[in-house]
Design a protein that fits this description.
It is a single chain. The chain is of the alpha+beta class. It is 43% helix and 11% strand. The strands form two sheets. It has a three-stranded antiparallel beta sheet with strand order 2-3-5, with no helix packed on it. A hairpin with a 6-residue loop joins strand 2 and strand 3. The longest helix is centred in the last third of the chain and has 38 residues.
Length: 136
């Protein structure tokens, strides 16, 4: 049942306002979290044996630190990758700092939201151009 005193927002061409954006923007949150985990797998350049003791992974902020001294490369600089705990009888010493992870997720969420808004703006402009061409 509809309230006659309340304007309808379901009419064609009506703009949904901020409420129409809440769910899509919240839907970008998992993208930020998944991207933060995925960016942890980017290789890191290590320039000395001392840096192998605390190799930071994650972008833009390192949020996972591993001790990779057991691999002892022959020359430096070298590139190392994040080694997960699965499949290792003796996993690497790894520490996780959740604050930089949250910051990374928030930054990547903002990027995903900006991309979503950009796509929506481009699509809206395309619709307006098509309508203007059709009416001319």
């Amino acid at each position: 049942m509809t309230d006659p005193d309340r304007p309808s927002t379901s009419r064609p061409g009506a703009r949904p306002g901020w409420r129409g954006w809440v769910l899509p923007l919240l839907g970008c949150l998992p993208l930020g979290v998944v991207a933060a985990f995925w960016l942890r797998s980017l290789p890191v350049t290590v320039r000395s044996e001392a840096e192998l003791a605390a190799v930071g992974f994650g972008w833009p902020l390192a949020w996972t630190v591993q001790d990779q001294r057991r691999y002892a490369p022959q020359q430096f600089p070298t590139t190392v990758e994040y080694v997960g705990p699965k499949g290792l009888a003796d996993p690497l010493v790894t520490s996780v700092d959740w604050v930089p992870f949250a910051v990374n997720s928030a930054l990547l969420w903002a990027v995903a939201c900006a991309a979503l808004v950009l796509v929506a703006v481009v699509r809206a402009r395309g619709r307006r151009v098509r309508r203007a061409d059709a009416s001319a």
